[in-house]
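Researcher: Quick sanity check before group meeting.
Model: Go ahead. Protein one:
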Amino acid sequence: MRLDRFLSETSPLTRSLAKRALKNGEVTLNGEPIKQSATQIDTDNDVVVLNGERLALVGVRYIMLHKPVDVECNARRGLYQRAIDLIDLPKADRLQPVGRLDVDTTGLLLLTDDGQWSHRVTSPRHRCAKVYIAELAEPMEGAAAEWAIGQVADGLMLDGEETPTQPATLRLLSPTQAELTITEGRYHQVKRMFAALGNHVNSLHRSSIGDLALDANLAPGEWRELTAGEIALF
């Protein structure tokens, strides 16, 4: 790997700033000052130091975040704090959300810089189940509840869509709290499904993706890296 590229991938420096740091004598290679940006290095064995700090390539990361409200999943900075801003890791900006949650939705959010793994989780072909807990504005009881459960199981036609949703599972935890399991990821799907049932979602929380549940020890805003076993679930 070229030395300037290595610097840009292992430090906050851009490629142009890495070249400037080299010219300024801020970099050593195996203990010797070096200024040639095109120098090829062995990333496994060579020792590169920038201003006294040894640099190393960052491998792929797999993160579980308990997403709080008022946090968005966009890469660009907007009105709200970004999910990646909560991750205290080198080059956190390389992490991408695996699917998305609305800014007012809480719960399990996965982030990774492994694109193939992310695709396996999100691809409609794999029909990965996602479980949401919804707090509803209107109670669902008796015959109305049974009707709603049946409608969800058969598939709902959402406003503006040409095909119904895939069969899903609705389970009522209380008259105003429902657990919805879906295998798709349409735009605002859960909220639109309850709207199609004549209800409104006051708050929404994702509790699991596939066989991976949100760690109960993570408070909103906290995160941890996935274990090898959890990564292998997808």
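Researcher: Fine. The other one?
Model: Protein two, sequence then structure:
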Amino acid sequence: MTPSDEHPQVDGTFGATDETVLPMEHGDVRVLRDGPLDAPVLLLVHGSAASSRSWDALTPLLCTHHRVIRVDLPGHGGSAEPPGGDYTLPEQGRRIGAVLDRLGVEHVVAVGHSSGGYAVTALAEQRPDLVTALVLINTGPGLDAFIAPERPPFSPEQWPPTDEQIRVFARTGFREGFRVPQELVDELRGMSFHAVAAAMQAATDYLRLQPLPDRLTALGRPLHVIFGELDRRWRPSSAADYRVVPGARVDFLPDAGHTPILEEPQRTAALLLASTGTPTAEAPQGT
């Protein structure tokens, strides 16, 4: 896609977002870009049943000093479902790498929220030349740490779900009392049941093969883990499992649930920027 094909989306909080749909070999991929063209690149990858819009509150706090690139995973947001329904994490990593190659990006700090942490880990496993460091936000380290109900409260026969069904499904994804933004509700409804179920199963399969700390130890890349202490999907204390990774930094956010990128964007951004060496306001210290 040439620059003339791109349609900037104006966000009143921080200027223009370049929103592009790239025609790729295995389906269209939506990409959102913010910040200076010549700045170091932060890649932001969302979790299952979400989209790049889940980073909306955080992006304005990052793009002053970074080029921020957000990618919708297959079947999520504005990206097409993969031919043959291949949602495996290695395939997700391969597709993200292909997108970054198309954009001419040579190096990224890869940031993943929830199961997006598995996608950026898979990317780093395949493309260590591309990923210089990883930041994982409320990404469960192993299946034994999962504490939420295993299945969504709807079935293929009930699809598309109602607002209430989506909010019931999403409630453990946030701290108690936090209201899920309507735009995220609408985007989930726009997904197919297969995309939601297959992406969740792919994350389970990836962890079943090997816990994430083991994968990250083998990678040898700098690692920063940020975890909300009120997470209702993953046992918060499990974040300490990442300390087996040499040099890993682990930070806890006391008042945040599973999605601090929306619940506590200022504090999350401060921690994230500190891990990239960017001057910022004082951030909470790791515990």
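Researcher: One line on it for the slide.
Model: Residues 18-276 form a domain with the Rossmann fold fold (CATH 3.40.50.1820).
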